[in-house]
Amino acid sequence: MPLHVTDYTWAQTESTVHISVPLKGAKAGGVDIVSTEEYLKVHFPPFLFEAFLFEPVDDDRSTAKVGNGVAVFTLPKKTRNVWEHLMITADDKETKREIRERALLKRQQKLSAESKQKAEKQQAEKKYALETMMKLEEEERDRIQKMKDAEREKTTAELAVWRLRQKQEAQQKQNHQIQQGGTTKTTGNRQTEIGKNKQGHRNSKKEKIQARPPPPRPPGNIRVTFTPRVFPTALRESRVSEEEEWLRRQAAARRAVSTEVEELQDLTEEERNPDWLKQKGDKCFANGDYVGAVNAYSLGIRLNRQIPALYSNRAACQLKLRNLHKAIEDSSKALDLLTPAAPANAAARVRASVRRGSAFCQLQLYAEGLQDYEAALQIDPHNETLREDARIIRNIIQGSSGHDET
């Protein structure tokens, strides 16, 4: 049986009722509140407070503040008058049971409506994100088509000029041959004899050269240099296999070539370079042009899908644009590409983990967000900013700070 709270206090004006219920050491997160026009319940096991109100109140404008060991309720009256009592004085259990059941049913309906509204809002956000992405892709296709058309017109003009030049050169050559025709006939025999003498002289010289052995090659020294270690840690302290795997994947990423051959042919030399596109995206991000930065990073990803910095930086843009699900997706892809863990990619893993954790927290998925912040702290344990952020998220999960409920 629950223990009923009797040491509550209440006060009223003609328009409002104020009720204070002591929580007896209970945390704010462990308090269950049900409020309707005619019923108020505060349950924090093993204690229970129930109030079958004397007259109806305006539930839509009612507020509750929970914190500092007390729950304070402000209930606007529907009718401006002074109540004789806070609760109805009748001891009819059947009437109270009906009031309680109506209150619980109304609460379930309200929670269902809120859940439906939240689902509709999420669906609207997804639809908006999809429409935005489709619009960006369409703009990108239009831009590429314009580049194709301009290049096609330029090539056609150059081809026409080249054909005209070839035609003019052929005409000039033909005219020159006609003018030189007579002279060639008179000197032809003499040129034939001179040519035979020169050919015989070359053959004789060639035979002499072939009979002579080649001179010996001069001696020399071969200089050998050793490739230095990429990672600064001592060999006995490093994880050689993980480091070599990371270097191999980075080299493969630099050699990767996109399969979209048609579009690559229409891009400029700079636009075919993912590193140049990354720098362009970084400049757009620094200038606040987050959509332009997303376009630059996206084109770089289409050219080479193995560079983790492109995904991680695009996740930062998606956070600014409030595309939280896309930020989580890009951060996760960056973390996949940043494996195996090595000292060279430690800073990049911290950034990707923090960006994904931030997106989770903005979606109110605090447990998932805390995991990413703690993973970042394991990589950079001396980062006080990360430590403070993790502490704040942990307090939110534990419900240690006071909060309002309507």
UniProtKB/TrEMBL annotation:
Residues 105-167 form a coiled coil. Residues 169-192 have a biased composition (Low complexity). GO terms for biological process: determination of left/right symmetry; epithelial cilium movement involved in extracellular fluid movement; heart development; inner dynein arm assembly; nervous system development; outer dynein arm assembly. One of its GO terms (cellular component) is dynein axonemal particle. It is found in: Cell projection, Neuron projection; Dynein axonemal particle; Nucleus. InterPro entries: CS_dom (IPR007052), CS_DYX1C1 (IPR037894), Dynein_assembly_factor_4 (IPR052004), HSP20-like_chaperone (IPR008978), TPR-like_helical_dom_sf (IPR011990), TPR_rpt (IPR019734). Pfam families: CS. The keyword Coiled coil applies. Its main location: other. Residues 3-87 form the CS domain. Keywords: Cell projection, Coiled coil, Cytoplasm, Neurogenesis, Nucleus, Repeat, TPR repeat. TPR repeats lie at residues 350-383. The keyword Aminoacyl-tRNA synthetase does not apply. PANTHER family: DYNEIN ASSEMBLY FACTOR 4, AXONEMAL, DYNEIN AXONEMAL ASSEMBLY FACTOR 4. This is Dynein axonemal assembly factor 4. It comes from Fundulus heteroclitus.
